[in-house]
Amino acid sequence: MSSKSMADRIREYEKSNPGSTAVQVAAALKIQARAVHQVRWLDKKRVSGETPMKRGRPRKNAVTAKPMAPTQGQIIVRTEVGSLHIKVDRLTQQNAQLRTVISYLEHQLGLKDSQHGAAI
Questions:
Q1: What Rg, from alpha-carbon coordinates, does the chain have?
Q2: CB 12: neighbour CB atoms within 10 A?
């Protein structure tokens, strides 16, 4: 049994026989042709600087997409929307308080239900 890996044996054979096809390399080394194609493909990817993609289904607990950090504009919009929401709540509360005062004063003056139209 040789200490060299199958990929090393394929590379050595191709160096010594540069014009050979994948089928010829596979027949000479008594391996399958797809192994030769796979080694060539991986070598090509390594030369181009790309890492081959992992195959298969991702793990369930793996995070597939990283949450995007909000941009400066999004942060400003969120804070403005939050402050506007607070202002609307305050104005709504102030409106309810003023309606209470108006109803009290109308009652004191004898005007009944003027908010719902004048009483005849």
A1: 39
A2: 12
